């Protein structure tokens, strides 16, 4: 059994209307959730497939970091799906600096965050003092790198170019992989 602490304002999202979301997570990840809505503590107990059960705490953590339940459940799509968090607060000198850096990650009208999602295929959420990412390992790495570039003060244009370049690399690798259908060489 693992214990995960999530923010108070995310407990309702985790439970869902009439407990619907909680039941869906329990069924999909083969876990049992014991939610203490007083302090935000969630006990996650594996009741079925132990490999699926390992994703249970990650799903709860992802919802706690601002992801919609359906996005968090993407972690179950395959064994390679990852959830990662970039701590904006750790890269900031003070509250004002944190707000500024958070703004850089979001971008004007949310454009930077949207580009990270569009060009990598990962889900990206900025909540509180963190940036959360759900995706395949390469997608998560690219988003983390782009976020770190922005936090280090890189111009948005340079980060967009980096994202475009990585997008084209991933697309090219995907094409190469599927080049010979039907086993012909």
Structural class: alpha+beta
Fraction of residues in β-strands:
15-25%
CATH topology term of the largest domain: Ribosomal Protein S8, Chain: A, domain 1
Described by its quaternary structure, the protein is single chain
H/I helix tally: 8
Distance between the termini: 49 Å
Helix content: 40-55%
Number of domains: 2
Q: Please, what is the average pLDDT?
A: 92
Strand adjacency order, main sheet:
1-3-2
CATH architecture of the largest domain: 2-Layer Sandwich
Unreliable stretches (pLDDT < 50, length at least 5) are none
Biggest pleated sheet: 3 strands, antiparallel
Number of strands: 6
What is the ordering of alpha helices and beta strands? EHHEEHHEHHEEHH
Q: What is the overall silhouette?
A: globular
Instruction: Give the CATH H-level superfamily of the largest domain.
Output: K Homology domain, type 1
Radius of gyration, taken over Cα atoms and rounded to an integer in Å: 18 Å
The CATH class of the largest domain, by name, is Alpha Beta
Notes on the protein architecture:
This protein is of the alpha+beta class. It folds into 2 domains: 2-76, Ribosomal Protein S8, Chain: A, domain 1 (2-Layer Sandwich); 82-178, Ribosomal Protein S8, Chain: A, domain 1 (2-Layer Sandwich). The protein has helices spanning 11-15, 20-29, 50-64, 69-72, 95-106, 111-120, 137-151, 156-177; strands at 2-5, 31-36, 41-46, 82-87, 123-127, 130-135. The strands form 2 sheets. It has a 3-stranded antiparallel β-sheet. Helix 2 (20-29) runs antiparallel to helix 3, helix 6 (111-120) runs parallel beside helix 8 and helix 7 (137-151) runs antiparallel to helix 8 (156-177). It is globular. The termini are far apart. The model has no long low-confidence stretch (mean pLDDT 92).
């Amino acid at each position: 059994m693992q214990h995960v602490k999530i923010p108070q304002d995310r407990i309702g999202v985790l439970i869902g209307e009439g407990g619907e979301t909680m039941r869906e997570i329990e069924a999909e990840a083969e876990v049992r959730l014991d939610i203490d809505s007083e302090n935000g503590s969630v006990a996650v107990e594996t009741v079925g497939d132990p490999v699926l059960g390992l994703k249970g705490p990650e799903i709860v953590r992802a919802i706690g970091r601002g992801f919609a339940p359906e996005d968090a459940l993407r972690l179950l799509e395959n064994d390679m799906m990852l959830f990662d968090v970039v701590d904006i607060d750790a890269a900031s000198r003070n509250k004002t600096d944190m707000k500024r850096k958070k703004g850089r990650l979001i971008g004007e009208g949310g454009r930077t965050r949207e580009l990270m999602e569009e060009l990598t295929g990962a889900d990206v959420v900025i909540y509180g003092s963190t940036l959360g990412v759900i995706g395949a390992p390469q997608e998560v790495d690219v988003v983390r790198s782009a976020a770190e570039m922005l936090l280090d003060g890189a111009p948005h244009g340079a980060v967009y170019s980096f994202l475009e370049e990585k997008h084209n690399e991933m697309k090219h690798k995907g094409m190469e992989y599927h080049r010979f259908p039907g086993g012909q060489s």
